[in-house]
Design brief:
By secondary structure, the chain is mainly α. 59% of the residues lie in helices and 2% in strands. The chain has 20 helices and three strands. The chain binds N-hydroxyamidocarboxymethyldethia coenzyme *A.
Length: 442
């Protein structure tokens, strides 16, 4: 058995036993009470899921296996001479809980490289779509076209998949998908924006470097950006729409292709992963409205107020859980200060950062006036010439695959059951409030 797979299974067996003990000893312990408002308001703050790969602290931001974004950037192995973390290292960390060595990462990179082949019919399927199709739709169609290759689905259908091996088939699918997704995503970009001229992979490059290459960006700095981008967007604990959807669909034993594609349809929403494209659109509109390419802080403030007055949100600001500047924003700002301190568009992002929080704070209702990850990413991409902002969510989707698919391996290894929370009607709520029934939902 492959080293990583064996290590994962050893860790999973230990954790499965610990969980069994926790449930046996403490299964009846009440952890918190749910308020009526919470079930009407997006279940905010209800602790209802277990996700092993990462944990979000409202002040400190995301931690992957107790390592902050800053620690990951510092400690994960890098390419020779590089300073950004290698995403394959993060996959290793999420799957095993251990910081990988350079050799571990090299080994996983070569495994991914070997598994990266995409059958031609997948490209044909994507090509059959009109060119105007949104890149996220093309991407998900590409992923779905590959579903027939699922080890899990095929073994299950053949009656050759005992419960004890669910994890293994999931693990195989997860690694296959992680290996192949960059090719699908790069093809979407080349088909939509570069006259369909696909670029062949370069087997000597790391996973993210090769993705940059297949997109058509061979600048080493852009490859470094992709390494950083793929790491910071990979996971954000389990309750966000893309992670939760992948987990939920997976809980029906839908295979990783089906589960991941479902999660990515959620990522495509404007309140989630589409926000990075919305940020750029919003800045373009601002430049046009103010008739200047370099708006001052006062002009930005005027436009923010106009946005709010028209009942719209300021994209890239606010978060359902975070209550501070997103550290993923901070590391991108750091990357910008290092590589492009004078880029005028990037400087607008920094001016918006100085201007927006006090205005949002003054509304009195917003819980987090600070920027999230999406406020910065587009401007860095634009610096290197990737101006097709409709495509940005696909980059996010490639990164998010690392987290949600690692999590799915844990779900299957820990035998997580079908997810099925209870829902109620407002009529049932009223009956309960009027004391007509004893229990909400009766
Ligand atoms: N601009 C204007 N108003 C905002 C706002 C923003 N950026 N963020 C929140 N608000 C408003 C909400 O719309 C809500 O108003 P109403 O009571 O009138 O409905 C009020 O402030 C309270 O909202 P909240 O509790 O602070 O925030 P939510 O948990 O409801 O929503 C969102 C979190 C991320 C959806 C929200 O902040 C938002 O819409 N932000 C802009 C879009 C965005 O950047 N999304 C990306 C988030 C990160 C992510 O998932 N990336 O993938």
């Amino acid at each position: 058995m492959d080293l990583l797979k064996r290590r994962f299974k050893e860790q999973a067996d230990i954790l499965a036993l610990e969980i069994k003990e926790i449930i046996k000893e403490h299964g009846e312990t009440v952890i918190e009470q749910t308020k009526l408002a919470q079930i009407y308001q997006g279940m905010r703050g209800i602790t209802a899921l277990v996700t092993e790969t990462s944990l979000l602290d409202s002040q400190e931001g995301i931690e992957f296996r107790r390592k902050t974004i800053h620690e990951l950037r510092d400690k994960l192995p890098k390419v020779k001479g590089g300073s950004e973390p290698l995403p394959a290292g993060l996959v290793y960390l999420m799957l095993t809980g251990e910081m990988p060595t350079a050799d571990d990462v090299e080994h996983l990179s070569s495994v991914l490289q070997r598994r990266s082949h995409i059958p031609l019919y997948v490209f044909d399927t994507m090509r059959a779509l009109p060119k105007e199709t949104h890149p996220m739709t093309m991407f998900v169609v590409g992923v779905m076209a590959l579903q027939g290759e699922s080890h899990f689905a095929n073994r299950y259908a053949a009656g050759d998949l005992p419960k004890s091996e669910y994890w293994e088939a999931t693990f195989e699918d997860a690694l296959d998908l992680i290996a192949r997704i960059p090719h699908i995503a790069a093809y979407v970009y080349r088909r939509k924006y570069k006259h369909g001229r696909a670029i062949q992979p370069d087997g000597l490059l790391d996973w993210a470097g090769n993705f940059a290459h297949m997109l058509g960006y061979d600048d080493e700095e852009f490859k470094e950006l992709m390494r950083l981008y793929m790491v910071i967007n990979a996971d954000h604990e389990g309750g966000n729409v893309s992670a939760h959807t992948t987990h939920l669909v997976g809980s029906a034993l839908s295979d990783p292709y089906l589960s991941y594609a479902s999660g990515m349809n959620g990522l495509a929403g404007p309140l989630h992963g589409l926000a990075n494209q919305e940020v750029i659109k919003w800045i373009y509109d601002m430049q046009e409205h103010l008739n200047t390419k370099e708006p001052s802080s006062d002009q930005i403030a005027e436009y923010v107020k106009k946005t709010l007055a028209s009942g719209k949100v300021v994209p890239g600001y606010g978060h359902a859980v975070l209550r501070q500047t997103d550290p993923r924003f901070a590391v991108q700002m750091d990357f910008g200060k290092k590589h492009m301190p004078d880029d005028p568009f990037v400087n607008i992002i920094w001016r918006i950062y100085e201007t927006v929080p006090p205005i949002l704070q003054s509304l009195g209702k917003i819980k987090n006036p600070w920027p999230n990850v999406d406020a910065h990413s587009g401007a860095l991409l634009m610096h290197y010439g990737m101006v097709e902002h409709e495509y940005y969510t696909v980059l996010f989707a490639v990164s998010r695959a690392l987290g949600v698919l690692s999590s799915l391996c844990w779900d299957r290894a820990l035998n997580m059951p079908l997810e099925r929370p209870k829902s109620v009607t407002t009529a049932a709520v009223k009956r309960w409030l009027n004391k007509e029934v004893e229990k909400l939902g009766d």
